[in-house]
Each structure stands twice: as structure tokens, then as C-alpha cells.
Amino acid sequence: MRCKTGILLAAVLLVVAMGCPAQQAPETAAGKQFAAWLAAFNSGLRRYQSDGEPWKPDWLCYYFINDAVSPSFVIDVSEHYERKREALDCHVSQFRRAEPGVVETRLNAPQFRQLIESRDAQFGALAGVRWAEGIVVREPVVRPSLMKGA
Q1: E strand or H helix at 17, and its extent?
Q2: CB 55 within 8 A of CB 40
Q3: For residue 48, how far is the Cα from the chain centroid?
Q4: How far apart are CA 19 and CA 32, in angstroms?
Q5: 3-state SS of 48-102?
Q6: What element of type H or E holds 133?
Q7: Measured between alpha carbons, how far is residue 27 from residues 16, 32, 33 in Å?
Q8: Which of 26, 47, 28 lies closest to 36 in space, CA to CA?
Q9: 3-state DSSP call for residue 15?
């Protein structure tokens, strides 16, 4: 599977997405949140030395890694779910205990894939689609009206 770097870089200019802090050790979550804030802040400074032009992301979004809390919104990924499975398969060494004596973790437990897929199926069922990814944001999601199609 090849990485579509150009597409990813174009999207990163608008949105910074990172693992949900509620699923990480407190020091890891705090460090990542600070790093993301600092990167977003510095990226907008005109005198900051960098290879590109100054820019500011529209918002910071958090995706789920292995647990789930109530999402701020979900994205219908039904059309792309097989691609997610392929991406997970690219990192199979992280999700299996290949050798005897390897410490069991949540990531390398046999049920990990089931955990991910059941969460995505649940979010999908709640949204009326087959598969959905949950996203958490800090600020309110603004809609133009109460009407669903608006």
C-alpha cells in the first residue's frame, strides 16, 4: 500500500488530527497536546524559520485509537473501510505477539481488531451507516440550522 503524501499534506493545512488524549497516559497526552499547540502556534508566525509559508490549521481534531468516548461527530467511512483494514494489515507486527515471551498488551491481544471494528460498526449504526469513525473536538461544532439537510 502506498502513502498518498500529497493528499495528506494538503489536508493537514486545514486540520490537525491526532490520537484522542483520553486514551493515553496523562504525560503522553499532555506532551502531545502541547506539541500540537506549539506546532500550530509556530506555524502561523511570520518570523518563524521554516521551509513553508505561515499557516494556521482550522481546528485540532482527535481520532480514536483503541477506546471510545462520546464523539463530537462521526464520519461515514463505509466506502473506505476495506482500505482501513489494509492499512492495519501493514502494521501487523504491532498487533501480534510474534514470539513467545512477548508481553501481552491491548494492541497485541487477539481481540484488538475486533475491538476496533466493533467500535466503528457501533458508530456507524448510530449514524445509520455501515462504518463510521468518531472524532472529538474541543470547540462546538457549528451548524447553519437545526435542519439536518441544511
Answers
A1: strand 15-19
A2: no
A3: 28
A4: 9
A5: CCCCCCCCCCCEEEEECCCCCCCCCEEEECHHHHHHHHHHHHCCHHHHCCCCCCC
A6: strand 132-137
A7: 20, 9, 10
A8: 28
A9: strand
Contacts of 58 (CB under 8 A, 6+ apart): 14, 15
Mean pLDDT of 105-133: 91
- Grid cell digits, residue 88: 492495519
CA atoms within 13 A on the CB side of 94: 7
Q: How far apart are CA 9 and CA 14, in angstroms?
A: 9
| Top mean-pLDDT range of 96-105, 114-123, 136-145 | 114-123
The three grid cell numbers given for residue 48, joined into one nine-digit string: 518563524
- Which residue's entry shows cell 481534531? 61
Q: Can you give the pLDDT at residue 130?
A: 98
Using the predicted structure, report yes or no on whether residue 81 has a pLDDT greater than 80.
yes
Whether 48 contacts 42, CB under 8 Å: yes
